Amino acid sequence: MTYRVAFAAVLFASSLGLAARGGDWPEFRGPTGQGHAAGKHLPVEWGKDKNVAWVTPIPGLGWSSPVVAAGRVYLTTAIPVQRGGDGDQSLRALCLDADSGKILWQEEVFRQDGQTAPAIHGKNSHASPTPIVHGGRLYVHFGHQGTACLDLAGKVLWRNTELRFLPAHGNGGSPIVVDDKLIFSCDGREEAYVAALDRTSGKVAWKTPRGMDVPKRFSFSTPLLVTVNGKLQVVSPGSGAIMAYDPANGREIWRVTFNGYSVIPRPVYGNGLIFISTGYESPTLLAIRLDGTGDVTGTHVAWRMRQNAPHTPSPLLVGGEVYIVSDDGVASCLDAKTGKVHWKERLGGAFSASPMAANGRVYFQSEEGVGIVVKGGTRYEELARNSLGEKTYASYAAADGALFVRTASRLYKFQTR
């Protein structure tokens, strides 16, 4: 099934848990890129000793989310180089068996020179962008350090280190696949652009500057592929604006400007609207119609909502409701058409991971390692609260009725028996 068909199959989903390819979770936020998991048997309760199928220590540190394809789990990580210089890191791809949790292989893709590497934020890692599996290939992205393609046995097929830029606080945004291209944002401290690589060769296919004269250019968002009037658009937020591009050539189709930088959340799309939060200092959730061209700031913003909008977690759209959680732990459910707040609830803790929908439920994950499951709908009802007692900034993965959670040192697979 192609990415385009997989996306179309879920675009008009109207209930929790309706998604394509229930056995795979091949990219950040799953097969649709919007946080929907298929299947009816995903655990509601879990813990260190509850519904654990396996737990595997993961070497090094990385906040990339796990991806799952054809019975394998893939991650990236950064491991300090023994007897290397201060700050030297081995940037690696890892593959685990999804049934047993055994690490099948790990491959160094890039070597970071600690003498020249820019500093990162304390909440970031050197391996934060999530990999993607497509067409029998694994694509891993380390931001300004480079991008690579591996076969599923761990052999590096190509590397690209041409797209250099000076990051602020490290790297974050993940790539997406559109037909024969791998597309991602490169929003650095001094230069901001969106780029596409040829998936076969790794060569640069196009590179489009953001064209925004803003004081702080750096952002970390992951693009989303949508179809508008039968044509593909890659929607990519950056500092000061959200833009849509033609994936074939990188031509900008439309933009909506705003006051904000360090934009992290990935957009979600449905009901003719795309939803995005605008980053620091004061985030605003925007609902935008996609049928325009040029600067449509004054004509295509359907509604705005400032209260408790997230800096970091992506929104979640399920049928007629949008679910969000602020970085300081206030969750809200909004009417997707109007922005009306159905409910808001303080969950407790801090949040970076993006929420997930499955089988009529919404799954939140706090930085403190607490998973909160609530019933989907316009009334708040908490179903479970599950603590792992360890830091986590990575988002969930779900495949074949199992939940995968990455903490600072481990990867868990939870499954009911």
The gist of it:
With 417 residues, the protein is mainly beta. It has one helix at residues 3-11; strands at residues 36-37, 52-57, 67-69, 72-80, 89-97, 103-112, 132-134, 137-141, 147-151, 156-160, 176-178, 181-187, 192-198, 204-209, 224-228, 231-238, 241-245, 252-257, 268-270, 273-277, 285-289, 294-295, 301-305, 316-318, 321-325, 330-335, 341-346, 356-358, 361-365, 370-375, 382-387, 397-399, 402-406, 410-414.
Attribute tags:
about 425 residues, mainly beta, Methylamine Dehydrogenase, Chain H, five-stranded mixed β-sheet, 1 helix, globular, disordered N terminus
Please specify the SSE layout and strand pairing:
Blueprint: H1 3-11, E1 36-37, E2 52-57, E3 67-69, E4 72-80, E5 89-97, E6 103-112, E7 132-134, E8 137-141, E9 147-151, E10 156-160, E11 176-178, E12 181-187, E13 192-198, E14 204-209, E15 224-228, E16 231-238, E17 241-245, E18 252-257, E19 268-270, E20 273-277, E21 285-289, E22 294-295, E23 301-305, E24 316-318, E25 321-325, E26 330-335, E27 341-346, E28 356-358, E29 361-365, E30 370-375, E31 382-387, E32 397-399, E33 402-406, E34 410-414
Parallel strand pairs: 1-28, 18-22
Antiparallel strand pairs: 2-34, 3-4, 4-5, 5-6, 7-8, 8-9, 9-10, 11-12, 12-13, 13-14, 15-16, 16-17, 17-18, 19-20, 20-21, 21-23, 24-25, 25-26, 26-27, 28-29, 29-30, 30-31, 32-33, 33-34
